[in-house]
Amino acid sequence: MANPTAKSPSHQSMVLLSRLLLTPINNEASSRQLVTALKSDLRKISRDDFDALVALASSNHVLVRGIDIFLELIRDADDESRTVWAQTALTAERDRVSGALQFLENICMAFESEKCNVAVIKSLDHWPDLGSDLDLYTNADSKVVSHLMASRFNATVAPRSWGDRLAGKWNFLIPGLPEAVEIHVGRLGQTGEQVTIASQLLARSRWLMIGSQCFRVPSASDRLLISTLQRMYRHFYFRLCDIVDSAALVESGSIDFQDLRSAATNAGIWQGVATYLVIVSDYVSSYRGRGLDLPYFVHAAARFGGDNVYYAREFLRVPIMPQSATLYKAQLTGMFRKLELRNGARLSLLPWLATAAFVGQRITGSDKGIW
Hints:
Strand order of the largest sheet: 1-2-5-4-3
Shape: globular
Helix content: 55-70%
Strand content: 5-15%
């Protein structure tokens, strides 16, 4: 992705979103030129193109942030019609987020009232945006979790896939809440292999205030570990929110890179974490002309960078062969070397699970029940 030149209408929308979110807005001459060009392009956007931009921003969990900047720039350009488009999209999304956040607070309070520790993972990393579901982690017993969700919220359990069972996660459907509530119980990772990260997550967590609401969330290092597990070891694609969230986390100065390396090494995913950060830095550099200020040992451990990432089907794709396969092999080998035999056995099922999901997708058009 070193060259952000768009090759399709969908890719053009991704480039425009990236420019909105990553273009530096300051008084430097180069920045002023970029902003002027961006304003000019925004004024040319059609209603259909705007709707496509909103849809892509939603799937990449940057709708509020992206369209908020769009609104700011288009107001400066005195464009009334596009101002209305942006205001309408923002109002609808903020209403959705507000409603989901109230449910999320109530769920966390219910866990705490039952003396069950719980943390919100992934979902609040995107604030003021919110993901398409609500993710939590708890070390409570799964039977206690199911009873709590059913008795307090009249929740039902969505059908569980093979992957869900291995990962130790449940998806709950609550009347009146459009988003599913995904609760990870005692394990993390696609096959539930990551008990090392999970066992320390709650002890290392911190409290986050959003307005008058307070949530327990992972530490900065653990946020990156979870993001890496999701992007480099499971989905093999980045949402734009991953780039924006992680870049902001690095630039905030809140990451202790020595702690991050130690925690990631213990979990067997340090190469994956380093690669993840270099990809983020390279993508940022393609829009700002400079990347993130990462320590030398991050670059040294990375197996590949942003040049290997490509855009397809709404997201930034990470090649599985051989790049991601190399990271998977290193993680699996590390687990067996540390005699984590059960967790290694779980992780060894991942290629079979992925193959079954691929075959199911090709035959039935869906990988439901598998992945």
